[in-house]
Structures are given as structure tokens and as C-alpha cells.
Amino acid sequence: MRPRRVLITGVGSFLGTELARRLESDPEVEYVAGLDDRPPRARLERTDFIEADIRNPLIGKLIPQAEVDTVVHNKIVRRPGPGMSGRSAHDINVIGSLQLLAACEKSETLRAIVVRGSAGVYGSEPSAPQFYTEEMARLYPLRTRFQRDVAEIENYFDTFSRRHPRIVCTMLRYQPSVGPSLDSQITRYLSMPVVPTFMGFDPRLQFIHELDAIEALVAAIKNPVRGPVNVAAPGTIGLTKLVRMAAKPTAPILSPFFGVVADAARRVGAESLSDDFRRLLRYGRAVDISRLVEEVGYEPRLDTVEAVKDYLRAQRGKQLLPTIRDLVAR
Amino acid sequence: MSTRVEQGRFTRARAAGPAGSPSPPPSAGQGRRPREQAYPGAFPIGPTISFLRRLRASLDAGSELPQSLAEATGALPRDLRDALDRMLHRLGGDYSEDEWGFDEEFADSLLPFFEFLYERWWRVQAIGARNVPSHGRALMVANHAGVVPWDATMMSVAMLREHPLPRYARFLVLDWAFTLPWVSVAMRKVGGVVASPYNALRLLEQDELVAVFPEGVRGAGKGFGQRYRLQRFGRGGFVEIALRTGSPIVPVAVVGSEEIYPKVADAPLVARAIGAPYFPITPTFPALGPLGVIPLPSKWRIEFCEPIPTAHFGPEAAEDRSFVFELSEQIRATIQAKVYDNLVARGSAFL
Q1: Rounded to a whole number, what is the distance in Å from the CA of B9 to chain A's nearest CA?
Q2: Is B95 on the interface with A (CB under 8 A)?
Q3: Which residue of A29, A202, B230, B277 shows the fewest CB atoms closer than 10 Å?
Q4: A199–B178 CB contact, under 8 Å
Q5: What value of ipTM does the predicted structure carry?
Q6: Which CATH number is B331's domain given?
Q7: Which of A120, A184, A116 is nearest to A150 (CA)?
Q8: Are residue B63 and residue B202 in the same domain, yes or no?
């Protein structure tokens, strides 16, 4: 097989940087380029860093020049960071994807686009099947802004791949990642001093370990398949079990008041919880990963509970409150 | 006060179970999976006092609280200490649930209460539990009544008590239950899943025993006058699922469940206001408030019929609509006939 040339958007994020590092050490990959408006998290050895805003039409010139065969689209904002409005997150997600596709259209060497999308497109529904398969994306109405964004992005890539049959578009639908070095919505939630929950609900959650998240991307780069693929660790974990393992005090809030309380808490400085995340905390979500295992050929090494354990093991050092079991250890 | 007395009586009844009462077949009890749990019949006053004494002595001697607690547990009887230990483990998140949220340890701990309902409250007689395959996938199909799935629970208990190789059944629950606080958690923990064909398929592919109630909300919402008249069996979806996975179908007739909440009227406006599929009015509900949720103590019979094998039809038979309807109708007729048989065999509804 001829050596691969890969471009990664959003290389300034943790997963983007780690993916670039992983590809650098891969003998099958000849060239790695990283595109972002912020520099990579760590020093990269042979990655070409292209500093550009993905919303800028200029990338229409930069990407064809790189002469890559695979584009990894990793610039999708799941949680607007500090100083970023919901509006600009939406712009990056939707306009960014459109600009990227316009640039891809001009590239003659391109063979595959791998998108790190989100399983958030399924939403969280009480009456949904316990495990979503790839064809269930439109089972329920799109309820939150992020969900609508992801659905829109998926639509663009779907149309693009139908118009350009020679380019394979893989839409990876990621469940939230956890891991020792990752800063995501779920790890932020678990690091709150008191964890708010919906009183009387114990949703089934599903994650993927950060290393598995990177390896799944690598597997998809090496073996791109057409259409959506769910990416998650096998198994699920109940929120109650998760919070107890993390030894966190909880604040159960009656569901009708959850929004009010969470908004009030945010005003006095607590972590803000997105609408998607609130729905996730109430109804949970899990996906079926047989397509990832059978067609892409990647089997996550850690299941959901093990991934959580690995994250918590790294956190233990920072723990302030003793766990109940430490207290009564015999 | 009264609950304690009941519990005490119940423990004695359990202990005397296999030898004394004639109702369970001789094999009952032998095949039970070993449960290390012991259920203390009455509140242990003596050990509690000596526990507190030791705790105080240890604290007076200048030990820290956690260490004193640990030392004082030595005064407790073994089973209580174990129970406490398990509880603390659970509070530390150290318990296992499968990917559906089924928590066997939790279900086991509820079993004494369900067995009380089974033995004393509804005096359930189970017939033909051996007809349920002891391993591998199988689909139990039963008639259904009442919004609280007591019938599913009692089928499960019957499987655990009367079957030579007991196993937990998973059951499909009306999805509305999963929008409710606490109810949703309890359902998942004891083996309920959202009533969706995808869930049933996946469970059967995992070689589980699955219970479905094809009457669905029509069965749960039928009036007292309609009792034991089976409603239409949906669109035969359960037959398709059984055919596709090659699972044998076990028709189950449940008699008694339809008297526990005699629904005399319906309040559709209230139902719409709270988003419920229907709002039943029974002689006790909502007149007596929460007390109205207590089911009436009718007498029950559960008959597990001969399993109908489907593997030899092959998965492509699921595409044949007329065949699916035919099989579905045949199963409905079997259950209806068995319901009538057992109604006659049972005699009086409450005595």
C-alpha cells in the first residue's frame, strides 16, 4: 500500500494533538498536516502546522496544496469553552464544515474524509431502544442546538459523499470520551464539588476511553467505510454507580426544577451544563458498536466501567473527600 | 409495628417451606442458586446494644471514629455484618449491573418481599414451570393487566421458585414507565427494558429469557368487565422477533392479575394532563390516595404452556405476514383457552 498523507483539523485539541503524534509514529503515514487556529497542545515532530481558522475561505487554497489523501475532521465543538458563545460554536461546527467541504471539493488527491462526529445526534430519549444502531438517527425530533448542529453536519457530508462517489466519507459517532488527560463535559461534571442529578433517575451512560478514541480514529483512517459508525466502549454504567465510584456527594434535584437550579448555580460560578448533557443526565444514551467492530475492525480495549476506573484512578491523587469505603475500611 | 410481625411470620414460613407446604414441587428449593444473604427476622436488639457499647468503649480509649466503628462491628452477628459490609460496598459503587441496568444483587434483595406476595398475598399456584427452557433464548408471551407489572414480577418469582434451574426473566415494559422518576430505576434494576423490538432482539440474541405482553396498553387499560378477555395481540411483532432469533415461544396464562386493580372507570382528561396512557379509577384508587396502590389479594394461577419451537421455520419466515398473523393468533387462542381453564380450576377469586 502506498504511504498515506493525512490532514487533521482541530489539531489544537487534546485528541487532535494526540492523533497527530500517533500518526507521526506510524510507518504507513508519510505526511501529517494539522490545521487549527490554536497551536497543538504538545511539540509535534514532523507535523506541518497550518494556522488558519476553519471558517475562513482561505482554507480552500491551503488544503489542496497539502496534497493529502485523507482529511480527519476533528473541529467540532461539543462544549463551548470559556469565552466562546453558543453562537460561535455553532458557526465553527456548521460553517467550518461547509468551508472544509468546499476545500475538499478542490483537492484532486483526496480519497477519504473521516469525521469525528457525535452520538449526540441520537439525543437522549426515555422511550428509545437501549442501544442505538446507525440507522436510528432520525427516530426522534432534534431537540437541542448541538443535536441540530450535528444533524446538519451529517447532512452536508452525506450529500457531499453522494456527489463525489470516489471520496469515502466516514461519519464516526462518538460517545463522550473519558480519560486521565482529557478535559470533557463529563470529567468537568465529575469534578464539581457536589454533583447535581435528576431525583429518581439513574440513566445508563456509555463512554469511550481517550486512547480507544484515538485508536478508533486511526482504524477508520486505515479502513474508511461509507456512512455512520458508532464509536463507544462496550457496556454501560449507571450514573449512580459512576458517582458513587467517584465518591462524590450528589444533589438530587426534582426534574421540573433542574433547569432553574442549574442555571442559578452557573451564575454563582458552577460549571455550566449544556442542554444535551442535561438530557443525558436524565435519560442516558447507549449505542451499538457492531459496525465499528465488524466493518472498521476496531474493538475498544477498555469497556465503559474500565474506562471510568482508569479515569478515577488518575483522579484519586487530587481527591479531597475520602471515599466512604476508606472511612469504614476494615 | 405490623410489618415487623409480618416479616417474622414470613421468615418462619420460608424456613418451613420445602418440608411443610405441599404446593411447591419436590424440586423447588434444590435448584435455587445459593444466596449467601440471610434475612434477619426481627430487629437485633441485643447485638445493637453490645455494638454501641463497644463503640463507646473504643472511643473512650481514644481511637478515631472509623477505627472504632470497625472494631465495634465485631459485636454484630455474622449475617448482619455481611449485610452491612455489602451495603457499604454498594455505597462505594462496588456493584455490578449488566449493560441493561439489571442488578442481580438488588433483585435478590427484593426477593423476600416478592416471595411474601407470591406465597401469602396472592397464594400463587404455578403450573408447568418446567416448560420454560432452562437455558438459551426463549420468549414468554402472557396476558396482561394493571399498570404496575405485578404479573411480570410473579412470573419471574415463579421461575425462580418452581423451575429446577431457576433464572431471572427480563420483561418488556411500557415505555411510559421510563419517563417516571424512581419507577424507571426500579424497573431497570429488576430486569425491565423499554418495550422496543430492538431491545427484545438484542436480549434474545444474548440468550436471555424474555417476557412480553403483546396486549400492551390495551391489556393494561381494559376495564373490570373485560377481564380475562384477551385484546388484539398488536401486529404480531413478538412472533417476528421469535422467528428472527429462532427462539421458542412459551405461552403463559396468568389468572388473578386482573382482579388486583378492578378498573371501573377511566379519567382520560387527567391521563392527558399527566401524559399517562390512561388514568384508572378503581374502588380504592384514587379515593384512598397512596393506599389505593395496594393490590387486592386475589388468588392466582400461572400456567406455563408447552413451548412452541420456531427455529425450524428459519428467520425468513418473519417476512411472511400471513404466517406471522396465523402464529400470533394461534398463541392468543392458546393463552385464552388456558386462562378459561385456570379460571375454572381456581374457583373463587379471592378465597
Answers
A1: 32
A2: yes
A3: B277
A4: no
A5: 0.90
A6: 3.40.1130
A7: A120
A8: no
Query: Same domain for B122 and B71?
Result: no
The parent domain of residue B212 ranges over 97-260+295-346
Closest CA to B92 of A314, A245, A238: A245
B87 and B234 together in one domain: no
pLDDT in tens, B133-187: 999 999 999 998 877 889 999 999 999 999 999 999 999 998 888 999 999 999 9
Clarify whether residues B52 and B175 are in a common domain.
no
Of residues A308 and B89, more confidently modeled: A308
pLDDT in tens, B178-219: 999 999 999 999 999 999 999 999 999 999 999 999 988 777
Angle between helices A14-24 and A210-222 (to 10 degrees): 50
User: Domains in chain B: how many in total?
Assistant: 2
B332 inside domain: yes
> What dihedral do alpha carbons B126, B129, B132, B133 form, nearest 10°?
160
Q: How confident is the model at residue B345 (pLDDT cuts 50, 70, 90)?
A: very high
* Domain definitions of chain A by residue range: 4-178+208-233+286-300
What are the average pLDDT values for consecutive 10-residue runs of chain A, which has 330 residues? 89 94 94 94 92 92 93 91 83 94 94 96 94 93 94 96 95 95 90 93 96 96 96 97 92 94 89 92 96 97 95 74 49
B198 and A129 within 8 Å at the Cβ level: the answer is yes
* A129 in contact with B, Cβ within 8 Å: yes
Paired with B212 in beta bridges are B141
A221 neighbors A72 (Cβ within 8 angstroms): yes
- Domain identity same for B178 and B104: yes
Kindly state whether residues B194 and B322 are assigned to the same domain.
yes
Task: Look at residue B36 in the predicted model and tell me its pLDDT.
Answer: 42
- Whether residues A126 and B175 touch (CB distance < 8 A) is answered with yes
Short-list A127, A145, A150, CA closest to A137: A150
**Which CATH architecture does the domain made up of A4-178+208-233+286-300 adopt?**
3-Layer(aba) Sandwich (3.40)
